[in-house]
């Protein structure tokens, strides 16, 4: 019996085998990045629309960045840098990752940085993932960092913020030392994770006054740290209302030497008795130390 060969099929299979052997540049989550240059709008006065090409559009007059399918991974220290009073409107699935290494105590790597008060929102369950650097030589790593004012996360947005492994600090979401407020409301879902922190602390969230209302859901976890690991840290009051749910988990705190202690908290309030924690409505909180 003669063997019948299908030459077109054989050629197609050969091409597929070659393609499978060619390595591709894939970003976080196994999806190929569509942009490698950072986005810096802190002094940008012109609007720009790259929704079709790269999944983003900047409205300079409204200070609004619209994301729909952005996959940004950059070797810069900050992947997206936004001015005060900026808004990110999220549609579809998006992620940003900064691989640039922060080498001194004053340096930082962040997926997103706001220069002041800001809003992250969505009306269509858009997803945004933000990553700071994760490298043995990275000093400070933050998923989201804001320098002042209040950060509002609301609507139907699904937000994930990751601090990577760092020598000193690793936070999922962090306000600067003026302790800006954080308000999470509506149907927002926020997952914030601190990575392993070598000589200092790891938090899922660190903010000033923290308010979580409506049907918002928050998961915050600290990673292994030398000094403090906490799911949530606040410098002012914590308010939980409506049907909101918080799950806060501190990681292991393992001091490098015996000259000081390590501490792990589900929720840690720096202000102590000077500030209150309020739980109202049918809100729930689950907090545990590592």
If you had to describe this structure to a student in words, what would you say it looks like?
The chain is globular, with a radius of gyration of 21 Å. The protein is mostly beta strands and 290 residues long. Strand 3 and strand 4 form a beta hairpin. The longest helix has 15 residues. It has a ten-stranded mixed beta sheet with strand order 2-3-4-7-10-13-16-19-22-25. Helix content is 7%, strand content 44%.
* Number of alpha- plus pi-helical segments: 2
- Quote the beta fraction: 35-45%
The gross shape turns out to be: globular
Biggest beta sheet summary: 10 strands, mixed
Roughly how much helix do the residues carry, as a percent range? under 10%
By helix and strand content, what is the structural category? mainly beta
Q: Mean of residue pLDDT?
A: 88
Provide the succession of SSEs.
Answer: HEEHEEEEEEEEEEEEEEEEEEEEEEEE
Read across the widest sheet, the strand sequence of neighbours is 2-3-4-7-10-13-16-19-22-25
Overall number of strands: 26
| Ends apart, CA distance between termini | 70 Å
User: Can you tell me the residue ranges where pLDDT is under 50 for at least 5 consecutive residues?
Assistant: 1-5, 12-26
Radius of gyration over all CA atoms, rounded: 21 Å
């Amino acid at each position: 019996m003669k063997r019948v060969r299908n030459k077109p099929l054989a050629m197609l299979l050969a091409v597929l085998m070659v393609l499978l052997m060619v390595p591709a540049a894939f970003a976080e989550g196994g999806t190929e990045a569509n942009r490698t240059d950072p986005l810096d709008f802190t002094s940008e006065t012109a609007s720009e629309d790259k929704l079709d090409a790269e999944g983003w559009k900047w409205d300079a007059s409204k200070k609004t960045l619209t994301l729909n399918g952005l996959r940004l991974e950059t070797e810069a220290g900050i992947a997206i840098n936004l001015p005060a009073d900026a808004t990110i409107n999220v549609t579809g699935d998006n992620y940003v990752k900064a691989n640039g290494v922060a080498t001194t105590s004053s340096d930082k790597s962040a997926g997103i940085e706001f220069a002041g008060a800001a809003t992250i929102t969505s009306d269509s369950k858009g997803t945004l993932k933000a990553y700071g650097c994760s490298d043995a030589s990275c000093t400070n790593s933050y998923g989201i960092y804001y320098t002042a004012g209040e950060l509002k996360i609301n609507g139907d947005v699904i937000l994930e913020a990751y601090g990577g492994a760092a020598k000193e600090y690793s936070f999922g979401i962090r306000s600067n030392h003026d302790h800006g407020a954080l308000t999470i409301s509506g149907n927002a879902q926020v997952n914030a994770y601190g990575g392993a922190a070598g000589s200092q602390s790891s938090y899922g969230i660190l903010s000033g006054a923290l308010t979580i209302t409506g049907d918002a859901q928050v998961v915050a976890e600290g990673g292994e740290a030398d000094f403090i690991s906490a799911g949530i840290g606040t410098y002012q009051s914590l308010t939980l209302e409506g049907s909101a749910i918080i799950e806060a988990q501190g990681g292991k705190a393992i001091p490098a030497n015996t000259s000081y202690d390590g501490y792990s908290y589900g929720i840690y309030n720096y202000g102590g008795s000077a500030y209150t924690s309020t739980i109202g409505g049918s809100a729930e909180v689950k907090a545990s130390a590592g």
